[in-house]
Write a structure and sequence with these properties.
This protein has 279 residues and is mainly alpha-helical. It folds into 2 domains: 173 residues, no CATH class; 97 residues, no CATH class. 67% of the residues lie in helices and 0% in strands. It is built from 13 helices and no strands. Helix 1 packs parallel to helix 7, helix 5 crosses helix 6 and helix 7 crosses helix 8. The longest helix has 28 residues. The N terminus is likely disordered.
Length: 279
């Protein structure tokens, strides 16, 4: 009997998904240094569940077990910081967390030890998202199964973070995750400019502004050509279009007068370039 591609996909998902979700849910507790989810899942599929061995408890970002253990005071051994920097992928993940997530998490006044544990789990949470994408791509799973695995994996890590630091921390991490690209853009541009001018953005301002930018420009870039209504009702005198005016109306409640005027200038310059390019 010939099976359709969808049937094969569902059958493979039924076999892979329990292993995938269970492994993702315990990855923080049992993981080896820099082994991808795809490689581990393939190995588990070949060996069968009875032959799987517990994976050793390792330290932050792939540090060795010995130097990642806590000392007698409960603090993480600083040697793990050196290990995390030895691997480019781990360093990139660490830099991403420090750049995007840490300023927001520090608002909650977590202890250094709690913040370290949260960042450790957060790194695994972010890596797992990429792992699921890789598995879905390589194994040709239906998107619904990959989405289910990703959701369950996120919940497993979120439950651990909530247990360590509280539900407020988990809610903040989820909120940040929805605007990572916008926070990255703000960090690379406006944050540095405002700091140089002596009027730096607070973490709360940065997060609020990121949510405004995501709402307004995600909607306005939904067109088939990537522009949508990005330059709708473009005003040649001000250099602003509808999305810019909506953004500025909301940003006025968040930013200082200097920050507002600077943002206005940036938006106008960008919109003028869009208009000149015929978008």
């Amino acid at each position: 009997m010939k099976m359709s591609g969808a049937t094969l996909g569902r059958g493979m998902a039924a076999a892979v998904l329990p292993v995938l979700v269970a492994w993702l849910g315990t990855r923080y507790v049992h993981r080896s240094s820099h082994r991808s989810l795809l490689a581990v899942t393939e190995s588990q599929m070949q060996e069968g569940p009875k032959n799987r061995q517990p994976r050793p408890l390792l330290g932050l970002y792939g540090a060795t077990e010995g130097n990642a253990r806590q000392d007698s005071s409960g603090e993480m051994n600083p040697d793990s910081e050196v290990n995390r920097m030895e691997d480019p992928a781990s360093k990139e993940m660490h830099d991403r967390i420090v750049r995007i997530y840490r300023p927001q998490l520090e608002i909650l006044n977590l202890s250094p030890n709690t913040l370290s544990h949260v960042e450790d789990l957060l790194a695994e949470r972010l890596r797992s998202a990429q792992d699921v994408e890789d598995l879905a791509k390589e194994k040709r799973l239906d998107p619904e199964y990959a989405d289910l695995a990703h959701t369950d994996a996120e919940k497993a890590f979120d439950d651990q973070i909530s247990a360590i630091a509280g539900a407020e921390v988990t809610a903040l991490i989820r909120r940040i995750g929805t605007v990572e690209p916008q926070l990255e853009q703000i960090h690379e541009g406006l944050s540095k400019e405002f700091a140089t001018a002596g009027d730096p953005l607070t973490p709360k301002q940065a997060l609020d502004l990121a949510e405004i930018l995501r709402t307004e420009y995600a909607v306005s870039s939904a067109g088939a050509d990537g522009s949508g209504d990005r330059i709708s009702n473009f005003d040649h005198d001000t250099g602003l279009a509808d999305p810019d005016r909506r953004t500025l109306a909301l940003a006025a409640e968040v930013l200082s007068p200097y920050q507002y005027e600077s943002l206005k200038g940036h938006l106008a310059a960008t919109t003028v370039r869009y208009a000149a390019a015929g978008n």
